[in-house]
Write a structure and sequence with these properties.
Layout: E1 7-13, H1 19-25, H2 29-41, E2 47-51, E3 55-61, H3 65-74, H4 80-86, E4 88-91, H5 92-104, H6 116-129, H7 135-153, H8 164-176, E5 183-187, H9 191-202, E6 207-211, H10 215-222, E7 228-230, H11 235-241, E8 244-247, E9 268-272, E10 289-292, H12 305-309, H13 312-357, H14 363-390, H15 395-405
Parallel strand pairs: 5-6, 5-8, 6-7, 8-9, 9-10
Antiparallel strand pairs: 1-3, 1-4, 2-3
Length: 412
């Protein structure tokens, strides 16, 4: 059914769940694919999974929330009890509005987050690859992407560098007092690692070393930014030499453990930008070691934060405009089958009556009669279609009456 109240979302996010819970509900690419396949086998026909550092959420068209929760628990390491305590469920327009707010960055830990839209687009593309979105979800996501674009072109929400990577640089500077003269080790060159590296470079950090399990990926990034590269086997030595160690490998377990850290090499700040965490919290028990994780990041240190915050009402207005347009489209889709059926029935009546009298017409008169009756039917249809589209609240009642009046059967 083409109805806003058929939307739902289930998930965990930084608003309700601490990091140690979120990491257990995180879904890697393989888990997302397995979840989508099983959802299809269970008759959940339209579902999209968004899994980021700060949230894991399943968006559905169709209220199969209990099934979705079961799938989330099965394909992650979270439990039902944890979801009951820290998870959330939204339905109807609340769920729809939530999707818009997530995509434009209003629901992000970093207001106006520049990276979240790419993560939503990736989730959409993955669901599309599995043929797992119906027409309503496709149309909804196009509205979501348009809302994001408008939020950047019609407002100043994109002012400054609103991203987790930028917030990490700000937090690093605050923790160390200054980044000038500091030696930085970046472990992992995924999307977050790459953007963080670029932000560090732009911030004037001169001594950056990259370590990645795949050296070619580190070399690819080094070709764009003047940084050093070290092999994975040299990780312990590089940790010992660094003041700031930023970790974002994408691994589903800690890659920095206490045995890798020599506390005698001076105080160090570890920045863990991964969920699940890549830095073992136990290393903070070592003297002079501090960990900054995702839950400690915010954008309040950014001088442009207030400017972005002032744009929120305008962005919310854009979301409401897009939802209103989507609601209109949904209404039209609900009456389209009736419009098509009514068109076919009236044209059939017209054709039947013409056939009865065609033998009495000359060839020229038959053409004129065909044109005249077609115009009459089209005018009747125009009034009927306008009425069906305009009467949103009574659409279902009116379509039932029309179908009964013209004996064209129930909605398919």
């Amino acid at each position: 059914m083409f109805r806003p109240d058929n939307f739902a979302v289930v998930g965990v996010s930084h608003w309700f769940a601490p990091l140690e819970v979120r990491e257990r509900f995180a879904l890697n690419a393989d888990a997302v694919e397995a979840l989508l396949r099983e959802a299809q086998s269970m008759g959940v026909d339209s579902l999209m999974a968004v899994s980021t550092c700060n949230r894991t959420e399943l968006f559905l068209h169709g209220d199969r929330t209990e099934v979705a929760i079961g799938l989330l628990v099965k394909h992650s390491t979270g439990t039902r009890n944890e979801f009951a305590k820290h998870g959330f469920i939204k339905r109807g327009e609340d769920a729809l509005r939530h999707l818009f707010r997530v995509a434009v960055g209003l629901d992000a830990q970093i207001l106006g987050d520049l990276q979240i839209i790419q993560q939503v687009k990736q989730a959409y593309e993955t669901a599309c690859q599995f043929g797992h979105l119906d027409a309503v979800m496709h149309r909804t996501l196009q509205s979501v992407f348009r809302a994001h674009k408008r939020s950047r072109t019609e407002t100043d929400l994109g002012t400054g560098a609103a991203s987790t990577a930028y917030a990490a640089v700000q937090a690093s500077r605050a923790a160390l007092g200054t980044l000038e003269g500091r030696r930085v080790l970046l472990v992992g060159t995924g999307e977050v690692g790459k953007v963080t590296c670029l932000n560090l470079h732009r911030s004037g950090v001169a001594d950056i070393t990259l370590v990645n399990r795949t050296r070619d990926r580190a070399m690819s990034l080094a070709a764009k930014v003047a940084v050093n590269i070290a092999d994975w086997d040299a990780l312990d030595a590089e940790i010992a030499a660094a003041d700031l160690i930023i970790v974002a490998t994408g691994a589903d377990h800690p890659v920095i453990t206490p045995d890798r850290v020599d506390a005698s090499k001076g105080p160090k700040v570890f920045m863990d930008l991964a969920v699940p965490r890549n830095v073992d919290p136990a290393i903070e028990q070592l003297d002079g070691i501090r960990i900054i994780n995702m839950d400690m990041l915010n954008d309040r240190l950014d001088a442009t934060y207030q400017e972005r915050a002032a744009q929120v009402p305008r962005v919310e207005a854009i979301i409401e405009e897009e939802i209103a347009d989507l609601r209109d489209w949904m209404h039209e889709q609900r009456v389209v089958p009736t419009i098509k059926a009514l068109t076919a029935r009236l044209d059939a009546i017209r054709a039947e009556e013409l056939d009865r009298y065609r033998s009495k017409f000359s060839a020229d008169d038959a053409v004129l009669a065909d044109q005249l009756t077609r115009r009459i039917v089209n005018k009747i249809l125009a009034y009927s279609i306008d009425h069906l589209k305009d009467e949103r609240e009574e659409a279902e009642t009116i379509t039932r009456v029309v179908r009964g009046l013209f004996k064209i059967g129930p909605d398919p």
